[in-house]
Amino acid sequence: MTVQVELPCPKCKSTKMKFERPEIRETDIITCAACGHNLGTMASIREKMNKAYQQLNRAGTKRKLQ
Which residues contact 27 (CB under 8 A, 6 or more apart)? Predict the structure, then answer.
């Protein structure tokens, strides 16, 4: 069984990812289903997404204060 994960690939911009496991684990390596680009482990992707979200929140807060 292959699980689909919706993440944007930085190489081809496709949002379909794949890995061979019924459940996502933090150590699973996520690969783009369209071009085969390796995005890294699920843990590293979550960390990058959290950092980007925090930057957006800080930028939004600064705009509201001005």
Answer: 41, 42, 43
